[in-house]
Design a protein that fits this description.
Blueprint (H helix, E strand, L loop, with lengths): L4 H9 L4 E3 L5 E5 L3 E7 L3 E7 L4 E7 L17 H14 L8 E6 L9 H4 L2 H15 L3 E7 L5 E6 L5 E5 L2 E5 L1
Parallel strand pairs: 1-3, 6-7
Antiparallel strand pairs: 2-5, 3-8, 4-5, 4-6, 8-9, 9-10
Length: 175
């Protein structure tokens, strides 16, 4: 009997911890634990995974760049600061930067019908700076589920490196 990806994920839930990552936060986990972040609208989730050590990290970015703010007390809020911080935490936990694979999700345009200049197209800017920052660190994006007009939940499985994406009204997707 073959299990569906959703059923297999549910069965493993009993054997591991599910660690929640809030908005403007990052967390690291080792196998068999999973990292989950909810409410990725215009925000972007960045999952990094080292398949050799089965260490993973998840970051929930709100804004693209910190340079326009005078007082930055939560670096994980920003793509330009949060991604290097996530890499540093993974390295400190024993992960190797050369092994890291990135998967990103989110960056939706949540307010359809509004003037794009008014909302500053924050989702697209978050995606752009996330890609640019990962590239500058030499980390390849192997999968992404970005854009659109719907929010997402992102779950990183530290055993497999798979990222499960839940979107309202859409079937579970594995990237």
């Amino acid at each position: 009997m073959q299990l569906s990806p959703g059923k297999a994920m549910e069965d493993r839930a009993a054997a591991c911890n599910e660690i929640h990552v809030g908005i403007a936060e990052l967390k690291i986990a080792r196998q068999p634990d999973r990292l989950i972040t909810l409410g990725l609208g215009s925000c972007v989730g960045v999952a990094l995974h080292d398949p050799a050590t089965m260490i993973g990290g998840l970051l929930h970015i709100m804004l693209p760049e910190s340079s326009q703010f005078n007082n930055v007390n939560k670096p994980a809020k920003f793509a330009d600061l949060g991604i290097p911080l996530l890499v540093s935490e993974i390295r400190r936990s024993g992960g190797k930067i050369n092994n890291l694979r990135a998967k990103i999700a989110g960056g939706a345009q949540m307010f359809s019908g509004l003037n794009e200049k008014f909302v500053l197209n924050i989702g697209e800017r978050n995606i752009c700076v996330t890609r640019k920052t990962l590239k500058s660190l030499g980390i390849r994006i192997v999968a992404e589920e970005v854009g659109g007009r719907r929010g997402r939940t992102m779950i990183l499985d530290t055993v497999t490196g798979q990222v499960h994406i839940r979107t309202v009204g859409v079937r579970l997707k594995v990237i």
